[in-house]
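Technical note accompanying the year-one report. For the benefit of new consortium partners, we illustrate the data format agreed upon in the data management plan: each record pairs a sequence with a structure-token string. No post-processing was applied to the example shown here.
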Amino acid sequence: MTWRRKGVKLLPASAQDDVPLITITDEQVPQKKGLLDHFTPVLWLSVIAVSIGAPMQLGYYLTVSDNPQLYIQQFFNTSKFAQTGHYFTQSQLTSLWSLTTSLYPLFAPIGAFGGPIIAKRYGRKTALMSNNILLVVGAWMQSSCVYFNSYEMFIIGRIITGINNGATTSIAPMYLSEISPKEIRGSIGVSFQVTLVTGLTLGQVLSLDKVLGCEEKWPQLYNIMLVFALVQVLAIPWCPESPTFLLVEKRDPAGSRAALRLLRTESTDLEAEIERIEREREIRMSEPPVQWSDLWKRKCLRRPMKLALVIAISQQLCGINAINYYSLTIYMEAFPQSALDAVPDLPGYVAVFSGLFRIFSALAATYFIEKQGRKRTIMIGYLGLAVTSFIIAIMLSDSPTDPSQACRGVPVGSAGNYIAIICVVLFSVFFAFGPGPICWLITTELFTDGPRPKAVGIAATSNWIANALVGLVFPTLQNLLCGWVFLFFFVIIVMAAAYVWCFLPDIENRTFREIAALFELATDHAIQEDNGKEQAESHTLAVNYTPEELLKLEEKLYCYKWDECEDICPAEWEHDT
């Protein structure tokens, strides 16, 4: 499509003469700021407080029980003997530990679903603070179970921690998204994944046998979770509430303006941002309240909801938990016995090394996501996951995990194990770059404040259900298919990538209302692409907009891949010298 341009102004060449053109003088052209230029001390504090107290704790807990699990099972046995005078049989102990492990993701959906409801009614800060109560109780029960000689305390503590972690995945991304300037909303959203993988690596390091993962010290691993809670409890009171929540839910313009003043730099036009949030509130008040069923009945909500669900579910069904489950076995088979005898913790060290790569990958995503957009970022991640999972399936197709298992695969020899190690590391790297961080960010961006809590709750709940499903089904599929089970994950990745490529628009550097407008207009417009530029066929709009609002939405549709300045479009500025 060609554009009519005079000085600094762009509109489709097909626009009629009576369509008012938007003229921008040179002085009005905004100067692009760097990533760090958008931060204020309070915004730094808010991001760090939430990141340490929520996703870092979540990542830490996901790995902290892996290395000392044999010692924990021994404690279960001694506790059982102290209570009843007899031990568990080996099959009973294995079943009990499997149940204990699976209860965590099975109860997490309760927190994931209920967290946004509390956040919507009482505020994001209140929800984050109250969630720490569950964390403290769960951590204390797991660390004190040895003192009380009760394995039941450990199991109950794990259930409570699961509810806490589920709420973490729905409340924290929503708060981070709403306090962020739209120019760096993606980078701040990705910080959730950065600190999550940092917590994963920290848990792997501290749970090594030479650190705290030994028989005498493993309960102390759960005391460290209290440190994460302490950091958040001390810091969150100094952080402002979400400006969107204050204005839209509490109807407190003064409070919202005060929060924005702390979260934005001096060059930010606070009144323009307040006006945008106020317009969102007015549009929401003019419409019926969003019900749970509306996310499926209303076309403009159903499309982003399906997109959020595909990304959330595929994040778990891509096989990342299977990789984590299988990685130590791969490492054990790849290294010669002499190396394992010399360094018994060698597989654990390799896992830590892989964790460091994941941190660097997630850090790279914070920069790439604003430069290249959400769509390209997640597509690169999907591409890497698809290639590595396909290679892993071949390399491990002839590798049984049990002596009685008969595998019919491709014999690759010892070299195949080394290739599998490289692919396992790369799989984690691509996951941390694309599907990992985008999952927590995208749902909060696709919806305005009205449907956002419900949509986030559904997406996070689906993510945890998929997590539990993989944990329950993967061992059975692995016994049946050996390494070929990774072809199942390969198919899931390809299907998710195809769907995201077709239906995810470019949403970076846009307000929540503008993103919602893309889906509203897409409901009634057929958008075609010709040589990378958009053409739109107008149809009758079934949306209740005033003529002035409709004109703005039409302009945004024509240039929806162009960055915008303040509240007008277009703004990927081209300067005529």
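Partners are asked to follow this layout when depositing records. The mean pLDDT is 81.
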